[in-house]
């Protein structure tokens, strides 16, 4: 049975209008009354159904964007584009950071921290299909990135396997044969690692090159420090040094280049490096960074438009899985200054 504001009011011993005032965060409600209402909301598991009502009526026009880390350039650049696209469509964006924490991600999915948004664009790290299937909140969701939606909600993302294969094939085409992969993760939740490792393996196998386990290096995360530490570890292993690195993110690649330089190796003369994400600073680093560039604008536009379509529809729309484009951007870290253009 659906819980209403009247039920919350009865449990808290207040008027229904007071419940509405608390939900809308009006300042003139006393701390004691606010605490009682919030306790009743939690006890009754009340979830305000803002989504269809507000977007259809145009009253709120607020959508949520939840990403793991705002200090990761890929997500901050994507957030800027989502805000830009949303504003052109008359929407305001509330941005949330989950830090990849499972409890925070569950709170977002179940509406605990998104009660006032009319739809959600979401890039989770730790959640799986079962979490989406069991969610209590009915707010429209568009999932971004590598996490599979398992046909439960709309999804927008690139073909990570194909993109990783393209990156590795580029290294093979410029004559590199001992190609390492930086960014593999043992955790089952890391689909980004699984998919990009798969593309790397496919490219090597198609070229008749051996996939060497010593050249596949896991990382604790996807930041510069993780790339630097993983590359230091790689360079200490027995056997011939790699002549190329494919890194799962641009930040890993930047850290890897630092470790290579510390080791007295030149990029790209001794070791060529490819990243993934095409963050803006890669265009200005020394050397500039060859990378896979996801079409972030297409991702933002597709996600916002799909969210609007679902929220405004009077009937249930079929779940949509959209594959957006990506391209290889060749720069100095693989071909040198003279050839990079």
Spell the H/E element sequence: HHHHEHEHEHEEHEHEHEHEEHEEH
Mean pLDDT metric:
88
Q: CATH H-level name of the largest domain... which superfamily?
A: Response regulator
How many strands in all? Answer: 12
Largest sheet: 6 strands, parallel
Number of domains: 3
What is the approximate shape?
A: elongated
- CATH architecture group name of the largest domain: 3-Layer(aba) Sandwich
What is the topology, as strand order, of the major beta sheet? Answer: 2-1-3-4-5-11
Distance N to C terminus: 64 Å
CATH class category label of the largest domain? Alpha Beta
Brief rundown of the structure:
With 341 residues, the chain is α/β, with parallel strands linked by helices. It folds into 3 domains: 1-42, lambda repressor-like DNA-binding domains (434 Repressor (Amino-terminal Domain), Orthogonal Bundle); 51-157 and 299-324, 3-Layer(aba) Sandwich (Rossmann fold), CATH 3.40.50.2300; 160-294 and 327-340, Response regulator (Rossmann fold).
Overview of the structural elements:
Residues 3-57 form the HTH lacI-type domain. InterPro entries: HTH_LacI, LacI/GalR-like_sensor, Lambda_DNA-bd_dom_sf, Peripla_BP_I. It comes from Microbispora hainanensis. This is LacI family transcriptional regulator. It is built from 13 helices and twelve strands. By secondary structure, the chain is of the alpha/beta class. It has three domains: 1-42, lambda repressor-like DNA-binding domains (434 Repressor (Amino-terminal Domain)); 51-157 and 299-324, Response regulator (Rossmann fold), CATH 3.40.50; 160-294 and 327-340, Rossmann fold, CATH 3.40.50. The strands form two sheets. A six-stranded parallel beta sheet has the order 2-1-3-4-5-11, covered by helices on one side. Strand 1 (62-67), helix 5 and strand 2 form a beta-alpha-beta unit. The chain is elongated. The termini are far apart. The model has no long low-confidence stretch (mean pLDDT 88).
């Amino acid at each position: 049975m659906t819980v209403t504001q009247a039920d919350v009011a009865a449990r808290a011993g207040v008027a229904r209008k007071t419940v509405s005032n608390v939900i809308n965060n009006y300042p003139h409600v006393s701390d004691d009354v606010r605490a009682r209402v919030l306790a009743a909301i939690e006890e009754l598991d009340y979830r305000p159904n803002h989504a269809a009502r507000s977007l259809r009526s145009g009253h709120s026009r607020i959508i949520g964007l939840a990403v793991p880390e705002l200090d990761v350039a890929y997500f901050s650049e994507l957030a800027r584009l989502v805000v830009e696209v949303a504003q052109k469509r008359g929407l305001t964006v509330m941005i949330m950071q989950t830090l990849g924490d499972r409890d925070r991600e569950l709170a977002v999915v179940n509406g605990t921290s998104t009660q006032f948004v009319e739809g959600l664009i979401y890039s989770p790290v730790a959640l799986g299909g079962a979490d989406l299937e069991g969610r209590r909140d009915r707010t429209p969701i568009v999932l971004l990135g590598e996490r599979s939606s398992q046909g439960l909600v709309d999804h927008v993302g690139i073909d990570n396997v194909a993109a990783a294969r393209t990156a590795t094939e580029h290294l093979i085409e410029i004559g590199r044969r001992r190609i390492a992969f930086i960014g593999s993760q043992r955790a089952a939740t890391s689909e980004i690692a699984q998919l990009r490792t798969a593309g790397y393996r496919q490219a090597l196998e198609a070229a008749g090159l051996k996939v060497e386990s010593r050249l596949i290096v896991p990382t604790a995360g996807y930041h510069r420090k993780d790339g630097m530490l993983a590359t230091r570890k790689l360079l200490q292993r027995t056997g011939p040094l790699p002549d190329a690195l494919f890194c799962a993110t641009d930040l890993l690649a930047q850290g890897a280049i630092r470790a290579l330089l510390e080791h007295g190796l030149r990029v790209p003369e001794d070791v060529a490096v490819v990243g993934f994400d095409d963050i803006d600073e890669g265009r200005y680093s020394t050397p500039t960074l060859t990378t896979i560039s996801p079409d972030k604008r297409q991702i933002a536009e597709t996600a916002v438009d799909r969210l609007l379509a679902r929220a405004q529809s009077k009937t249930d729309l079929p779940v949509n899985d959209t594959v957006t484009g990506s391209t290889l951007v060749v720069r100095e870290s693989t071909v040198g200054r003279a050839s990079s253009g």
